[in-house]
């Protein structure tokens, strides 16, 4: 017996005042409606309806049962409506603004799995090196934690990670791998430089020694204000650079890059996603934010697992 269908049929029989009228309303045969109500009565072990040739009435048990049944069926219909609305919302466009490095190494790898889950959602990506992003113009904005976000926006951390030293295997084969901070001066460095600012000594932090710090002068054979350019040059084997672990986790896992001089780091940073302040966020936008957080943190977890296995 389909108990839920029998409950709905029973309610319609009462509301329509008869089996034939309920059958027309539900697009069923009168015999099917009669059978479903009888099945429900048999399951409950009590008569719900008093049937005569002229009229149909509820028994005391039927009246008490229907009183409890109506809100239950109402809740089920509301749940169905919410689910259907959610399904409709899992289509349309999500407009995303992202910094170049984040778009390339965080968002792009997360897209295939998101498409499998939500094939009707279109991602419209705008990639810019923004200093002061206009969050209101997009469904979500993905930047580093150092980029100012307007107070009216709602920000969520995608991942918090450390900036680590990395180099391509080809570079390390050619120049060797630094074994201590004192070895860094003999290597070729790719460094970020803000226009109008001079390069300073690099601060190294040892998380295993209560964040002990060390200042090291390192030469820069390439410096740029564009992080992704430096990352691409690092992958190509031009030298060593400092990169956010959360950003390069897939590259470390694939072997395109290798972390050097662990456990030293050069700082801590985060990647955040900001959405305009709204009372209602479309389900497709919320789904992409959740997926971005999930896939990025999973990439870091996989990297840590691989590192642990390698050290075992």
The rough form would be described as: elongated
Number of helices in the DSSP assignment: 9
Query: What is the rounded distance between the termini?
Result: 57 Å
User: Any idea what the CATH architecture of the largest domain is?
Assistant: 3-Layer(aba) Sandwich
Taking pLDDT < 50 over at least 5 consecutive residues as the criterion, the unreliable ranges are: none
The helix/strand series, from N terminus to C terminus, equals HHHEEHEHEEEHEEEEHEHEEH
Output the CATH topology of the largest domain. D-Maltodextrin-Binding Protein, domain 2
Beta-strand portion reads 15-25%
Describe the structure.
The structure is a single chain. With 312 residues, this protein is an alpha/beta fold. The chain has two domains: 3-85, Orthogonal Bundle (Arc Repressor Mutant, subunit A), CATH 1.10.10; 92-311, D-Maltodextrin-Binding Protein, domain 2 (3-Layer(aba) Sandwich). It has helices at residues 3-16, 19-26, 30-44, 60-89, 100-117, 169-175, 227-235, 245-254, 283-311; strands at residues 49-51, 56-58, 92-98, 121-127, 140-144, 154-167, 190-192, 202-206, 212-216, 222-224, 241-244, 258-259, 265-275. The strands form four sheets. Strands 3, 4, 5, 6, 11, 12 and 13 form a seven-stranded mixed sheet that branches. Helix 1 (3-16) crosses helix 2 and helix 1 crosses helix 4. The two termini are 57 Å apart. The relative contact order is 0.14. Belongs to the LysR transcriptional regulatory family. It comes from Ramlibacter monticola. This is LysR family transcriptional regulator.
